Structure prediction request, 61 residues.
Amino acid sequence: MEKIEYFDYQKVAKEMNVPDNTLKEIEEEVKKEFPKDKMMYELHVLRAVRSKYWQKGIKQD
Prediction:
């Protein structure tokens, strides 16, 4: 994974016991929305982690 530059979402995910595979899925989903904007990418991953979005599972298309 790339170096965190703006929001340390990985630390928050670890504190909230988000499974590694779930964090990867969140990262992949958010990367689709913000492929070139690292700050927005990190912010939205952080928001998804903190909102406990991950507990509901990631919606597959």
Remarks:
- The chain has three helices and no strands.
- The mean pLDDT is 88.
